[in-house]
Each structure stands twice: as C-alpha cells, then as structure tokens.
Amino acid sequence: MHSVITYFALFLFPLALFQSHCSGGGKPAAPKPTVQTRTVKRRNLTRRLEKGASVAYLEKAAVSAPFAGTLERILVHPGDRVKKGEPVAQLDTIEMELSLKQSRAREHSARAQWKLAQSVHRQSTRQSEKELESLKSARARTIRARSGFLRARQDLKHKQEMYRLGGISRMEMEEAYNQYISQVTHYYETLQNLRNQRIGYRKKDLEQTTENLPGTASNQKQALIRMNTDPEKKKVRSAYQELLAARSGRQKVQRMLREATIRSPIHGVVATRNKEPGEEVQAGKPFLSIVRMDKLLIQSSVSELNRPYIHAGQIATVTIDVYPDVEFEGTVHRIAPIADPETRSFQIGVLIHNDDQNPLSPGMFAEIEIETHKSRDTLSLPCSVFEGRESLEGNKQEIFLLRKGHVYRQSILVGKTFGKRCEVKSGLDEGDVVVISNTAILRDGMPVRDTSLVE
Description:
The chain is α+β, with helices and mostly antiparallel strands. It is built from six helices and 21 strands.
C-alpha cells in the first residue's frame, strides 16, 4: 500500500506541475536559426584560367648529312652547348678533293674550246665580210668583161662588113674574130666566177632562212654575214654550254666540300648522338639532335569555352613543381587552330625564358595561370552560396536576403564566375545583406540570428 502511494506521488505531482504551467504561461519560444551573411559590394573581379601543363622544347633540330658519306670527325657530345653555324661534324673529303681537281681541269679545257670557237667565228665573220667586198670587185670585173665583149662583137661585125666589101684582108678579119672569141670567153668566165661567189650571198638564199627580209642594204649585209657564219656560231654556243656544264660540276663539288663540314642549324644543346667517327651516314638521316634551351614552351590545353579568352601575346604565370616558390612569367606563343576531336580542347604553348638560376628541362610538370577576363565595379557573391547547384552562369538562382532580422527569398541572375566569386547580373543592389549559410533550413519570412562578424 505504501509503494502504491509513493508511485502516485511521483507520477501525479510532475503531471500537476505541467498542467499548471500550460494553463498559466503558454508554449515556450523556439530558438532562432543562426546564419552568416555578407553585404553586397561592388568590386573589381579578375577571372583566371589555371591548368596543368608540362615543359617542352620550343625548337628541336635534327642534324643530318646533306649527302651520303663517311664521318671523319664528330665534334660534339650530348650536353654540349653549340651556336648556330658552329661545326658539329666533318665528312671525309678525299674523293671530293680529287673530283674537284678533275672538274677544274674539265672547266679549263671547256673554256679553251669555247675561246677557240669564238676565234674561229670571228675569222669566219671577217672572211664573210671580205667575200662581200670581193663580190663588188667581181661585179665590176664582170661589167668590164661584158663591155669588152660587146665592143669586140661590134668590132667583129664591122670587120666582117669591111671584109665583104674588100676593105680589109682576111687576116685582119680573123684577128677581129679571135679578139671577139677571147672577149666572149673572158666575159663568161668572170660571169661564172661572180655566180659562184654569190652562192650563199644571194637574196634568194637569205629569203630561205628568214621570214622577213631586212629592208636596208646594211641590214641585209649583216643578215648575210650571220647566215654564212651560223655553223661557227652554233659551235660557239655548243662550246659555251660545255663550259657552263663543266663550271656547274666544279661548283657542285665545291658546294659539297663546304657542306662536308656539318654545322648546327640553331643555338642550343646537343640532346642525342647515334653515330661515331668512321661510320657511314645517309643523306637526310639524322645522327645528332640539338634542342634550344634558352627558351622553352609550356604546353597545355584549354576548353572550347575558354578559347575565346586566350590570345597570342597574353601574359601567363607559370609555376614548376620542382620550384614551388618561384613564378616564371611567360606569354602565350602558340594556339592550335583546330580543337582536338576527342576532348574538344585547344592546345596552347606559353613561351618562357630559361635562366641559369632555376634551370628547367623538358618533361617537367608545370601549372599555368592566365588572366582571361576583368570586370570592374561589379556586384558579386561568393560562389559557395550556390554550392551543389549546376550551370550557374547565365541562369537564375534563389537566395535569401536578411532584412530586419528576417530572411526573404530573392531571385537573381548569375553572370560569369571569377575564381571563388560569381558575378550578379540582376536581382541585387549594393548594400543588400545575403545569407550565405544554413540556407537549406530557411523559409521565406523566417526570423534568424546573424552571427557574422562585421566585414
């Protein structure tokens, strides 16, 4: 009985107290959610692209022999620094030196033949000029012979008439006849000689060799001389072609002798060497490689969305894994014109100078940072406000504003992202207070307690 009384006392007394409290004071007030806020301000924003990259050669040259031969000497080893134009190897030149002597002898002989042909041509020209002059004399002799022939014929007719009339003796008439025969013979001999001399110097001969007959006598004379000396002129041209061929052969051997000393095409460092002196090399097959080390290329890629913000000459900051505390400044040097079909990214190359204090080598890992966009006097929010949301740029988002201890839902338009901050295109004014924490438990109009420190 005592235990029952004790049980009722322990149970009913707190219940009575609870009923008394409910009837007298009402429900207890729920605690306000705590939030943190930020005041919206205008600021200058900078958008940077950060990408992993690697160090690569800016320029690499493969050194090969210009023609097949035997390596007499190799003057460099891997790691040696060379300047552009500096000799790096020497081919054997014994056969080329012998060939040069032979080609010089051929050129000397060809020059002598050419000069001889020129001399013969000059003599032929002078002979043609003399023959043209002798034609004038032959014509004059023929004219005189014809005049003598005509006089003798006239005299013979006269003597025949006188002999018929009995005015002269038979002996005188026969003497006139013999004189006539002599003049006829002389005339036809000189005429035949003239005809023989004119062969090759006649107008019809010239017409057969040219379409347009020269108009003046002087031009016709020169044309006749050229026509009669054409064989000798052809020999001059042929001899000159032989001389040119011999000269070309000599120059080719001299060029090969010069090229037998193989020189570095660039400033750089010898990277590889796969031949030794005495070994054969083939034309165009590399046996040395030289890389440029004073300037290097930092290779990376950018997405098609970031491609419009990258241009040649743009400043880039480069950090190398082996020098984490050192920043290298470079410029965008190359941009691939075509995107990779699989990744839809564009390859870029940043040019940097390689210094001796912090030397770089191709193959090292790197990071590049490029300032792609600036926006001045811009409203923005920490991007953490939108944590877990996708497709921020250009889309509307819901946030909460704090006004007089209560939160209110607000729709805003988000612009570009600048690192950890997001541009606000519309929906906010400078001075608005935005809730940045515990937004998942908030409701429109809910009272809250702001625990933020003053910015």
